[in-house]
Design a protein that fits this description.
The structure is a homodimer. Chain A is an alpha+beta fold. Helices cover about 45% and strands about 20% of the residues of chain A. Chain A has ten helices and ten strands. Chain A has a four-stranded antiparallel beta sheet with strand order 2-6-4-5. A three-stranded antiparallel beta sheet of chain A has the order 1-7-3. A three-stranded antiparallel beta sheet of chain A has the order 8-10-9. In chain A, strand 9 (about 200-205) and strand 10 (about 205-210) form a beta hairpin. The termini of chain A are far apart. The relative contact order of chain A is 0.15. The interface of A and B includes residues 73, 88, 120 and 128 of A. The structure holds a DNA duplex.
Chain lengths: ~240, ~240
DNA sequence: CATAGTATGTACGCTAGCGCACAAAATACC
DNA sequence: GGTATTTTGTGCGCTAGCGTACATACTATG
């Protein structure tokens, strides 16, 4: 058990940003659930019976191609919500959603969220605003995939993950990171080796400890900053609601 | 002048999908405008005073990195709308929007669209549904960038562009295509050369003619199909509105 | 504490795509 | 109709990342 209750809904930043009255209306329907590593919440083309507001878990949105290759297109942590496609009226997406870091999250019946969304108030504005941030993240991933080195992408991915976990350590094999980034495991071994030599991280069989966060930030590409700023902006704007 | 009036709003498939009453409300505010190649509609971080419903033009959403490299993340043709970020409440995006194929489109004051969107009726549902399709397109671009060859990507791009133009020919230099895909111009020369040898396309200084569309479809990666099906689904669903 | 299973390190040849340089062809413009 | 400009073709050598294979280390489990 990586982290344990007591949990509060406001450990998810979206829920925390809701006006008290709005939160009150859904609070009793929020169920705290533990989400084990590797759990598949939604397959390609499948429907999502629940939406999830992560508190300590991180969910990965990714594609699996016909030849078995895969790529993450975005992550969803305590800054977000899994289930945007539902709100968009899509019923399904071509992407998968799996638990990348075990932890907790609140789930809510999809129909209930939809109902709240359709009231058109602060919840709607907040979720749309989050959708915008998600689009930015996906777009930046697209560009990063094209133009940046594995090492840069690894740094981006580590930083984004650390931000979500609010921690210096993460439990994660190189194999798993590789499948997220859609590269070879050996590519990660090499990039991580360099970072370790530079004393930026320490790697021990499924555990990465960040020794020098500033160092990571000098090795990362601009993509991290763009995404981070977009999330910051989201929660800055959201105070107005 | 690549194509000329008389134009009708319903040449844009989103506008065409609107119930008559809804369309009536905005019709008088829709302005037909010609959009010349290369026109920059929105810079990174800039605001969009108008939204655009393309009829014969195609708009490219793309990023420009610090080192000057660029990549398209999605295209917007007569199936869509430029200005989703506005609806999402974002005020701006890190992406650029430029005219990739000259032509016509209808523009509408941003504030007016927002007002209509906030009524919450069919227009809202339609635009959200389109957002979903746009997200799919961006996601698929991300994955395609990672895993598929230039030739496959060129085919994808050509097919998507042809679908939007409803034509066998397009006016487009290799240099421009390269900057869309975020690859070298020489890479496009090579890939296009192969397709030409296979008698699938004919290339003549800025003009591509597709001789064998089925041939293109055998060379393309699965990404084209995913995006196309998503657009088809959008307009199938939309009839219910 | 021995062993099976899993995670990581390393090596090697291969290929796609890059960066650069320049030639050839097509078009626009005076 | 001749010249400048743009577009396309081609030929390097180079590098990042791939696929494969295998060795080494860690750790869980009995």
């Amino acid at each position: 058990m990586p982290s344990s209750p007591p949990h509060q809904p406001d450990q998810n930043r979206l829920l925390a940003a809701l006006p008290a009255i709005e939160l009150e209306r859904i609070k009793s329907h929020l169920e705290l659930v533990h989400m084990p590593l590797g759990d598949v919440l939604c397959e390609s083309g499948g429907r999502l019976p629940y939406v999830y507001f992560p508190t300590s878990t991180i969910i990965s949105l990714h594609y699996i191609l016909e030849n078995g290759a895969s790529s993450e297109i975005a992550g969803v942590g305590n800054e977000g919500l899994l289930g945007i496609s539902l709100i968009m009226g899509g019923e399904s997406t071509p992407s998968w959603a799996t638990v990348q870091t075990a932890g907790y999250g609140y789930r809510l019946k999809a129909s209930l969220l939809l109902q709240e969304f359709n009231r058109g108030g602060p919840i709607q504005r907040l979720l749309l605003r989050y959708t915008q941030a998600l689009i930015t993240q996906i777009s930046q991933t697209a560009v990063c995939n094209r133009h940046h080195t594995i090492e840069q992408q690894l740094c981006r991915w580590l930083l984004l993950t650390l931000d979500r976990l609010n921690s210096q350590e993460l439990v994660m094999t190189q194999e798993l990171i590789a499948s997220m980034l859609g590269v070879r495991r050996e590519g990660i071994t090499e990039a991580a080796g360099k970072l370790q030599q530079a004393e930026i991280i320490r790697y021990r069989r499924g555990h990465i400890t960040v020794l020098d966060r500033a160092g990571l930030e000098t090795h990362v590409c601009e993509c991290y900053d763009v995404v981070k700023k977009e999330f910051d902006r989201l929660f800055r704007d959201v105070r107005k609601y």
